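for the writeup, i need someone to sanity check this before i put it in the appendix. the sequnce is what the collaborator sent (i think, or maybe the updated version? ugh). structure was predicted straight from it, no edits. if anything looks off just tell me and ill rerun, i have time this weekend
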Amino acid sequence: GPTQRLVTPEFMSAAKRHGLLVHPYTVNAEGDMRGLIELGVDGMFTNFPDRLMSLRSPH
């Protein structure tokens, strides 16, 4: 996957248009995780999976 800094709305549009999954790395800050989830990434690499799971799970 790409570094998280490359993942923009334009990047996501192009990736989806070509049928690609997007899994950026290494995403450790909750704010970055939220932004990438909003952009529609398919997953992400992180050193803090508990943070990511708490954002993706219904509260």
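The radius of gyration is 11 Å. The chain has one domain: 4-56.
thx in advance!!
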